[in-house]
Design goal:
The complex is a heterodimer of chains A (115) and B (111). Chain A is mainly β. Chain A has strands spanning 5-7, 10-13, 19-24, 31-37, 44-50, 53-56, 65-68, 75-79, 88-95, 105-106, 110-114. Chain A has no helices and 11 strands. Chain A starts with a strand and ends with a strand. Chain B is globular and about 45 Å long. Chain B starts with a strand and ends with a strand. By secondary structure, chain B is mainly beta. The interface between A and B is medium-sized, with 29 and 24 residues.
């Protein structure tokens, strides 16, 4: 069975440009999460989707960041007017929604470098 | 404030030298504690979930335990392929999805 996949694996862009990062979750997982990870740190929560809707976007740092999941499966994280401080590894995870704490399964990440 | 602290930051062991990694937590209403392994350039790989104090889980050379204030990841007779960063995360309170993460312990096993 396929795990969580993310594309591209690496993205280099220039300051001020727009980027899109894609996440394909595990089939059947209704919950999807985006995180950002800097070197030597644990993942930092960005946004959580339950189905098509963003149930919690409290971790998005500002309005340059936006994420969608139009059909309840694939998700795209969009970053406008990128800044050098946006450079990090962007991780996507998915889980099967339930009443117990859900195990989140992670993709390999997209390393974003803003020059 | 909910907090998760992992120690040590880094640990170097000889192959076969057993040791433990620590994850201390201060949260209101623990729902679950998760251990992940992360290799360089990869996403975290799920290892264990512990739901209640006293619970233990094992997988190959790894054993995770849970007390009221901390969790230990015991590694027995480690091999070089066990080298990785081990991350601990806690789910607490009313949330069934928010994870509070530690910064990880970088484990290096020398042959």
């Amino acid at each position: 069975g396929a795990g969580v996949s993310q594309t591209p694996s690496n993205k280099v862009t220039e300051k001020g440009k727009y980027v899109e990062l894609r996440c394909d979750p595990i089939s059947g997982h209704t919950a999807l999460y985006w995180y950002r990870q800097s070197l030597g740190q644990g993942p930092e929560f960005l946004i959580y989707f339950q189905g098509t809707g963003a149930a919690d976007d409290s971790g998005l740092p500002n309005d340059r960041f936006f994420a969608v999941r139009p059909e309840g499966s694939v998700s795209t994280l969009k970053i406008q007017r990128t800044e050098r401080g946006d450079s990090a590894v962007y991780l996507c995870a998915s889980s099967h929604y339930g009443t117990r704490p859900d195990t989140q399964y992670f993709g390999p990440g997209t390393r974003l470098t803003v020059l | 404030e909910d907090q998760v602290t992992q120690s040590p930051e880094a640990l170097r062991l000889q192959e076969g030298e057993s040791s433990s990694l620590n994850c201390s937590y201060t949260v209101s209403g623990l729902r679950g504690l998760f251990w992940y392994r992360q290799d360089p350039g990869k996403g975290p790989e799920f290892l264990f979930t512990l739901y209640s104090v006293g619970e233990e889980k094992e997988k190959e050379r790894l054993k995770a335990t849970l007390t009221k204030k901390e969790s230990f990841l015991h590694i027995t007779a480690p091999k070089p392929e066990d080298s990785a960063t081990y991350l601990c995360a806690v789910q607490a309170g009313d949330s069934n999805y928010q994870l509070i993460w530690g910064a990880g312990t970088k484990l290096i096993i020398k042959p």
